[in-house]
Write a structure and sequence with these properties.
The complex is a heterodimer of chains A (107) and B (121).
Chain A: E1 4-7, E2 10-13, E3 19-25, E4 34-39, E5 46-50, E6 54-55, E7 63-68, E8 71-76, E9 86-91, E10 97-98, E11 102-106
Parallel strand pairs in A: 2-11
Antiparallel strand pairs in A: 1-3, 3-8, 4-5, 4-9, 5-6, 7-8, 9-10, 9-11
Chain B: E1 3-7, E2 18-25, E3 34-39, E4 45-51, E5 58-60, E6 68-73, E7 78-83, E8 92-99, E9 108-111, E10 115-117
The chains are: A mainly beta (107), B mainly beta (121).
Chain lengths: 107, 121
Amino acid sequence: EIVLTQSPGTLSLSPGERATLSCRASQSVSSSYLAWYQQKPGQAPRLLIYGASSRATGIPDRFSGSGSGTDFTLTISRLEPEDFAVYYCQQYGSSPTFGQGTKVEIK
Amino acid sequence: EVQLVESGGVVVQPGGSLRLSCAASGFTFDDYAMHWVRQAPGKGLEWVSLISWDGGSTYYADSVKGRFTISRDNSKNSLYLQMNSLRAEDTALYYCAKDKSGYGTGAFDIWGQGTLVPVAS
C-alpha cells in the first residue's frame, strides 16, 4: 500500500496569500496518478487536480499542481475566502489511498 | 445534471448487515468504474471498494475484504455495497464516487453527498 503523508497539518494564512501544500508518497506514484481534492465542512470532496497537474472541469486557474515520483505540491496562488477548507491528496495508480489532509484556515 | 445519490444508511448493531445504494444520473453510467469511499466522523477519507464499468472486476480495501461486496446494475444506473459482519470501526459517512475511467485507473470526478452508517448497540 502506498502511504501518502501531507504537510503541514494546518496552514494559517490570510486571503490573498499564497498556499503551498505538500504530499509525499512512500513509493513512486506510477504515471503521476496523483489527485487533489477540496472538502468543506458538511460537503463531499471535490476533485481539483488529477494526473498531478491537470485541473478538473471548472476549477479556477489559481489552483495548480506539480510534482512526480514521490513528491507532489498543490499551490493556491491567491487565497479567496471560499478556499479555506481541508485538502487531500490521493494516489489512484494502484489500490487508491488518501493522505491525512491539510487544513487551510484563516489567520 | 450529473448526480450521485446514496441511500440505505441506518443505525445497525455490531455483527449486522446493511446494503447501501447509489443512484446515478446525468452521465452514461455503464462507461465508468465506480467506487465507495468512507469517512469516519472527524477523520479523513478511506477508499473502500472499486468496480469496473461492466462489473467484471472488483477490488477491496484490506479492512473490508471478505465482509463487503460491491456490485452494480447498469440497467438501473445503480451501484450497491453489501456490508456484512459490521463492526464499530465501520461507522462512517459512505460516499459513492465516479471514476474518470472505465477500469478504475482514474481520479474520482463526481461524488455523492454520502449516507451515514452508525454501527452501535
